[in-house]
Each structure stands twice: as structure tokens, then as C-alpha cells.
Amino acid sequence: xxxxxxxxxGYIGSHTCVELLEAGxxxxxxxxxxxxxLDNLEKVSQVVNIKLDINETKACDFSFIKGDVRDKKLLIRxxxxxxxxxxxxxxxxxxxxxxxEKPIKYYNNNVVGSVVLIEVMKKFDCKxxxxxxxxxxxxxxxxxxxKENFPLSASNPYGQSKLIVENFLRFPNQLHFFFAKTVFLxxxxxxxxxxxxxxxxxxxxxxxxxxxxxx
Length: 215
Prior knowledge:
By secondary structure, the chain is an alpha/beta fold. It has one domain (2-187): NAD(P)-binding Rossmann-like Domain (Rossmann fold, 3-Layer(aba) Sandwich), CATH 3.40.50. Helix content is 36%, strand content 16%. The protein has helices spanning 11-22, 38-48, 72-81, 96-101, 103-123, 157-170, 172-175, and strands at residues 2-6, 26-31, 62-66, 86-89, 128-134, 181-187. The chain has a 6-stranded parallel beta sheet with strand order 3-2-1-4-5-6, with helices on both faces. Helix 1 (11-22) links the parallel strand 1 (2-6) and strand 2 (26-31).
């Protein structure tokens, strides 16, 4: 399968690329590199021993295109040039504190970017979608661990931006969208488990401050 991974140069995205490539899938990464580095994908290339193509060579198993998911013309060009079987959507802003200070920035990036991407997927009949959401959509849970059926009540713009997209995807008939498969990933804090000694740690290399990173 040819998988488009948006935000694939980030921490979670780059490790996801490792898993996809090792499973035999072709991977196309779309990332604007606003808070990540191309070096992360070069490291993925070393880990899986598959060359990273940055020249949009159609036959490559592992490719990178620099761009923003809000750029509809770019997305249409990508879907026109490649047969995309599914999308894993990591691209988005992710700091709770910053979202309170700059809410419009978060709604524009996380919500608008997702809607534009989904619209283009519909245009090209791409029906498999994995959305990187967040456990912040549960607000302040009364008990832990959080269960997936807990009430949804995001208490900050970041969480609200993720919840808006979740709700957008939950009611496909009302919005005239249809996905054969949709999955929500709801992260709290994570660290990649390296299964093999051959897999070297891929650094995060953020360009901006990590507001929500546990060391």
C-alpha cells in the first residue's frame, strides 16, 4: 500500500514511517518542517535501509515532499501523481499552553488543515484515514486510566481543535463524506520502544520549544 503520512518528519511520524516501511508499505511523507527536521527522515532511511527520495520520483518506496496540508493545490497534485491507498494524519500543532495563547493559530492549522485534507481524499476516493488526535479531548477525567468511552470535554483550544475534527469524522453521512476505515489515535505521553538493536533512536530535533515533553 502507498501511505501518505502528514507530519511524518516529527517524532511520532518518523517512527511510524519505520514501522510502515518495515511492514512492506510505500511511504510518502508530507511535512512543512515547521517543528521538525529532514534529518529525522534521513535517519529512518538508515534504519530501514531504504533510500529517501526528495525529488518526487514516483517509483520510490520512501519519498518526502515539503508542504502544508492546508495547501489544497499541493494536495491535489500529490493525489493526482500518486495512488494513495490511505492517509495517516499527524500534521498539526500540539502544545496546550501555546494553544491558549494563540487559539486562532491552532484552529487554523489543526482544523482547517484536516478539513482540506479530507476534502481532497474524498475527491480522489481515498477511504482509509488514521487521525492523530489526543487524550486532551477528554478534558479533566474523573478517574484514571482514561477509557475510550469517557465523556468528551476538551478544556483548551488544542484539545478542542482535535475534538472538532473527531466530530467531523464521526458524522460522515451528515457531511457527505465516507470512509471505509477511520481510526483515532489518542496520545497522552509516549516513548518509542526500540524492538531491535539494529534500530537506532531517532531524535526529535524540534525547532521550537517542546511544551509538553516529558524527559
